[in-house]
Amino acid sequence: MSLHTEYPFTLPKGYVDDDGTLHRKGVMRLACARDEIEPLRDPRVKENDAYANVIVLARVITELGTMSRLTPKVIEGLFASDYRYLQDFYRVINFGDPSVLEDLEPGSPFPEEAVTVD
């Protein structure tokens, strides 16, 4: 059995960059403790706790379309439905709730053991 650390996704609407290019397909990696701890030091999080989610997503999304480095600004520019989708997707791959996996990525090859928490 191997541990899956990266998971493909497709945004419902997609991110439109400054050049007008639509980015829908991406990859999210599993989060490590540092991904959730580091944002707590950010002054934007001290003003608004919810901003930690923006920073965490920017850290764990390894690619979105042709973009290989995402910033919090990119996450801020997502449509609300895509942002919500990514939050749900993050919870599924990191905390193992396979009951919502088919709703998020129908037909995707997610091995059951990759999302099961013991």
Give a brief rundown of this model:
The chain has 118 residues and is an alpha+beta fold. It has helices spanning 33-37, 43-47, 51-60, 72-76, 80-95, 101-104, and strands at residues 6-16, 22-29, 61-64.
What characteristics describe this protein?
118 residues; alpha+beta; rbstp2171; three-stranded antiparallel sheet; 3 strands; 38% helix; globular; disordered C terminus; Tail assembly chaperone E/41/14-like protein
Please characterize this protein's 3D structure.
With 118 residues, the protein is of the alpha+beta class. It has one domain (6-97): rbstp2171, CATH 3.30.2220. It contains six helices and three strands, in the order ββαααβααα. The protein has a three-stranded antiparallel β-sheet. A hairpin with a 5-residue loop joins strand 1 and strand 2 (22-29). 23% of the residues are buried.
Q: What's the tally of helices?
A: 6
Identify the CATH architecture.
2-Layer Sandwich
Helix percentage: 25-40%
What fold name goes in the CATH topology slot? rbstp2171
- Mean pLDDT level: 86
Number of domains: 1
Radius of gyration: 14 Å
- Compute the separation of the termini in Å: 14 Å
The neighbouring-strand order within the major sheet is 1-2-3
Shape: globular
Beta-strand content estimate: 15-25%
In CATH, what is the class? Alpha Beta
* Number of DSSP strand runs: 3
Structural class by sheet pairing and helices: alpha+beta
> Can you summarize the main beta sheet?
3 strands, antiparallel
Low-confidence stretches: 109-118
**Order of helices and strands, N to C?**
EEHHHEHHH
Protein name: Tail assembly chaperone E/41/14-like protein
Organism: Labedaea rhizosphaerae
